[in-house]
Amino acid sequence: MNNIPEKKLLFLLYDRTVIYLILVMLLYLSMGEVYHNIQIHYIKDYVLFRRWGDAMLIAFPLLFVRKKILAFPYLLLINLYFLSIVWYYRVYSTIMPLSSYLMVYNLDGLSLSIFRLARFRDIFVVFPSVFWGIYYCFVYKKINFLLWTRVRTSLFGLLLFGGIITYYACKQNPAPGYESLNGLHTIEPVRAFKEFGFVHYWIYQIGIFQGVSEKEKEYAREVMRSLENGNNCAKKKVESGRNLILILVESLHSWPIGMCIDGVEITPHINFLLKQNKTVYFPKEMPQVKDGRSSDAQLIINTGILPLLTGAASACYAANTFPSLPAALREKGYMTASFLWDDKNYWNQEAMSHAYHFERLYDRLRDSEKFEQADEQLFEKTLPLLVNLPQPFYAQIVTMSSHYPWIRSPHMKTLLDDLEIKNEDVKNYMVILQYVDECIWKFVIQLKERGIYDNSIIVITGDHDALPYNEYEGREELRGEDCFVPFIILNSPLTSEHTNKVIGQVDIYPSLLDLMGCTDYLFTGLGESVFSNEISDFATYRTGISAGGVNIPDSVKTQRERCWILSDILLRMDYFKTNTMLSFQ
């Protein structure tokens, strides 16, 4: 009788150990499928053992679950997390930062986009958990609960585990790697994720919120002190008092502009506007957004600094102090407003509009949730609000229709339908751009009819890349020039000698300060005005690839590239809150 408690304890120990080991193996297999979808080779053989360690840690809470059925909701959450990583990577080619999981409002209206990202093979991500459900219902509850049976089961599990580890550990992993955890996460976060695993990624992400080192702070202060007030602006005389209307177009690339396929123009109205007097067009603007995507574009254009190396500033640092284009214009007596089709919570835009010093924010300018009708609704509802704004004003208008997955409404009939374009995404993207092109054209016409156009500078630019030119060509290799977005200025009071050169998205901010006569503002950004006598003709993409740079000194390239690290430090230390910027006075 005295042996009964001991046997029960031993039985419970074996029972939980076997279940835990089975769940670890299943999670290990799920994680393997997640990594398989991230198309970068393993770095070293030991990453397979790290993955096993990750699986053990993730499954660890299940070791203490008394009722095995409670493992199902936990596994459901884990599966959703795994799938979010895969789907996010398919769109943004990077790992979803932990900060983005705080942006739950971003899911509103994106269910179809998420559905379009799913692939049949994704079932293999969740299949191990499905296997657990089958095992629990048809095997676990029916096996004989004798101690020797559990021992035999555990031995089988250990044998299976050994076979998996031996198989994976013997695989060749030819890609070179890095020894530094933080260094690799900073330079190549996707590769770091695959080499160091989930837990290390979480540790690095959590570390982002721990501020900056004294060495980083001193580096930022030193570089900022070396900048001179407005040295990156042309400082040309500009007549003040003109409105500024910035149309930030979702996913607008440069390559479709001016393109004609069998006599069919993709953007006929924009093509017409480019031929008008006082139009300045830079087709080679390198988008420089990262994890924050559209929100990063607003950050770059409105503040003149680049985004975080990891994470979205709109999620992590919405409480920061920013010098900004709206603030510079408000000093000149401008009204500033931002106009959104989507909800103000999307990308935390309400908080960021305050941080950028916009006085007004108009959101949900729509009649329906359909992307394919978004832009006509946005411009239709924006126009009367714009007319009633006190002049001069700065209006930022953020479009939505050309957001992936490029949904066509039934009334979108186009001559492109008669053309043979094998890639369906490319074809739909072109059709949607024809629609966006028409919406912008109608809006410009209405501005003229309302008497606003002649007294306004209108800027049209893409927020980020979405379907680079190599996909149109059917080419796998991604080059910097494949990603270009346009920078168009209508009614420009200034001209430029550099319209065929490569510029960065970070160059828009000082260029707009030039256009609006705000070169005396306390911070003129980290980029270069396109209206300066000389520009670098070099810019880097978020992955590190670059464009331009022919006959450009390495020192210039280094200076442009270091802006990424500098901007990351400025954001993390909230530089503009704690520094008086005496060097800019």
Portion of residues within helices = 40-55%
Beta percentage is: 5-15%
Q: Regarding quaternary structure, how should these chains be classified?
A: single chain
Please tell me how large the radius of gyration is: 27 Å
Global structural class: alpha/beta
Low-confidence stretches: 166-180, 581-585
What's the total number of strands?
12
> What is the overall pLDDT average?
84
Major sheet summary line:
8 strands, mixed
Count of DSSP H/I helices? 20
| Biggest sheet, spatial arrangement of strands | 6-5-7-1-8-9-4-10
Coarse morphology: globular
> Distance N terminus to C terminus?
87 Å
Structural account:
There is one protein chain. This protein is an alpha/beta fold. It is 46% helix and 9% strand. The strands form 3 sheets. An 8-stranded mixed beta sheet has the order 6-5-7-1-8-9-4-10. Strands 2-3 form a two-stranded antiparallel sheet. The longest helix has 35 residues, at 3-37. It is globular, with a radius of gyration of 27 Å. The model is unreliable at 166-180 and 581-585 (pLDDT under 50).
